[in-house]
Amino acid sequence: MNSIQSLNGLNFFMADVRDGLGPFLGVFLQQKGWSPAEIGLVMTLGGYAGMIATTPLGALVDSTTAKRAIMVVASIAIIVASMITLFAPTFPVTVATQAVTGIAGAVVVPAIAGLTLGLVKQTGFAHQLGRNEAFNHAGNVFAAVAGGAAGYFFGLAAIFYFMAGMAFFAIIAVLTIKPEDIDHVAARGAAEKAEGDTSDTGQATSYAALLTNAPLIILAVTLMLFHLGNAAMLPLLGQALVARGAGDPSAFTAATVVVAQLTMIPMALLAARLAETRGYWIVFVLALASLPLRGVLAATISDSWGLIPVQMLDGVGAGLLGVATPGLTARILKGTGNVNVGLGAVMTMQGVGAATSPAFAGFIAERVNYATAFFALAAIAALALILWIGATRIVGPACGGAAKAAPAAA
Known about the structure:
mainly alpha
């Protein structure tokens, strides 16, 4: 097995580990008698912990050659935290374990991005990002089907043990990536080495330079709004079903994940193709446009069949952005030596939105109803699209392809 195959395997098995229990957590806690607001709050607190840690963790990935070890430690931490939640699902304990999960999960994206960039360099980055995301989503489909089946036949507790198994194979995959195949200078977006050159010639720029990088700031704020509108939708769909008493919650939650993830696989490959041929601007437009429509549909569906178009739209948005976010960040910061800390900064802003979303939506769902919460999320998502299109002159030149010429032609 070569290092690229191991990277593909890492993306497949890590899919079920990175976010901990994901949407299953809300259903698990609801069955333990938690209210929507309590569930949203604990998810938000855990998300904030990850958000605070993301930029420093990105800097760690840029500065260290122990990227494989980082992945191993993160996997173990997520599993230990999740198992503690299973046996002691009290509010203080769950807040603490979600904080650990959030922090450990926060390092996964920059670490995998760094490993990928170090293995394939900038020229092969967009293509391999598409493959990374395709394997990631395939892993999510497998995990949702197998985990959902385990939850259906043996109870939600079985999902915890299934995730531990996935983590074990993720650790095996990352350890089979050959250290000598990783160019750690290229991995942080510094000047790529010539053949046979082992010197580190790329000097990282000041972190303060990130705060004056207009395309990076627009990207970060756009993603913050997108994830503020997006993060709560899937957990809220599961909770809405439980509230109506319609169907088995494990099977329903798994079905919502499967529909979305199956859509994400072709979307990830399409995003890589569009990025290479037309640039990242159009990829973001397509992704951002899908979320307001998804929120409106989620607010108006009356039965479980409605989850199909709702979750297909989730697959469109997440599948495209999974490739476009690290890809565009690497383009914006190419040559700076700060690609992963820059990606961490973008993810911090993204985390602000994602962490706030469950508490925001849970509060509205409890005080008003679920439909109103979905409409509110859709309105926020529309702001992200408006901002991105309005800032085309700023972000367009960094996007490459057709978008690069668009601002000049305007």
